[in-house]
Design goal:
The chain is an all-alpha fold. The protein has helices spanning 28-50, 53-60, 65-71, 74-82, 99-109, 119-124, 130-148, 157-177, 180-184, 187-202; strands at 205-206, 212-213. The longest helix has 23 residues, at 28-50.
Length: 217
């Protein structure tokens, strides 16, 4: 056995008040997945320094030694959780005329902060780790300034792509913080405004003055 057997404490909640995500099987894939889920919660709520390997492993229901077996170090586990850009893979594949709908769905139906803290929170709550901020910036730039911008026609493609990232990450983060207006907004109202802004960035129109800009006036 690799030590990933579930502990007999499934009915106990962790100190966050949430029921820990525990590995249900002994497979390496299940153990790794449970550790990443537990780490996302811990790092998101307490930052890098406030989350211990022991607590993360305890939440996942496995021995702390398995963190080092599967990830090598606490820092590598942190990077795996906070630097994963796989959530944007489908955005890079959807037709451009469906990007606004994708963003609206991402913002309006994403998991709550109680279920899964926003990935930016792990970075913000680990602000003393300059390398973390740099890596996050580089990863976002690679996805948006690089790969997504290549799909856009017209001027300022990289700028428009980064503005899209700002809309996406900023709006979803504010939703996670539950600011009054965003928290109270209906899905229909949220989608209406998001679609208007995102569509202007992805498919800017030529204005009467001859310039190309999102307003399309």
């Amino acid at each position: 056995m690799d030590g990933s057997t579930v502990k007999a404490t499934d009915d106990i909640k962790d100190d966050t008040g949430e029921r820990p995500v525990r590995a249900r099987k002994n497979s390496a894939a299940d153990t790794r997945s449970a550790l990443m889920a537990a780490a996302a919660l811990r790092f998101g709520r307490y930052g890098y320094d406030g989350a211990s390997i022991r607590d993360i492993a305890g939440d996942a229901g496995v021995d702390a030694a398995l963190v080092y077996r599967y990830f090598g170090s606490k820092e590598a586990l942190f990077a795996s959780v906070t630097m994963d850009t796989a959530i944007f893979d489908s955005l890079l594949e959807v037709p451009l005329d469906e990007v606004a709908a994708w963003v609206s769905d991402f913002v309006s139906t994403g998991p709550s902060d109680e279920a899964l803290p926003h990935p930016l929170l792990s970075v913000l709550r680990s602000s003393s780790r300059e390398e973390t901020a740099r890596m996050f910036r580089d990863n976002v730039a690679e996805v948006f300034s690089g790969r997504f911008a290549e799909r856009l026609e017209g001027p300022d493609a990289e700028l428009r792509a980064e503005l899209l990232a700002a809309w996406l990450l900023g709006t979803s983060l504010m939703r996670a913080f539950r600011t009054p207006a965003l928290d109270a907004a209906t899905t229909a109202a949220l989608e209406s405004h998001l679609r208007a802004g995102v569509t202007g960035l992805v498919n800017p129109r030529t204005c009467d003055c001859g310039c190309t800009c999102p307003c399309g006036v």
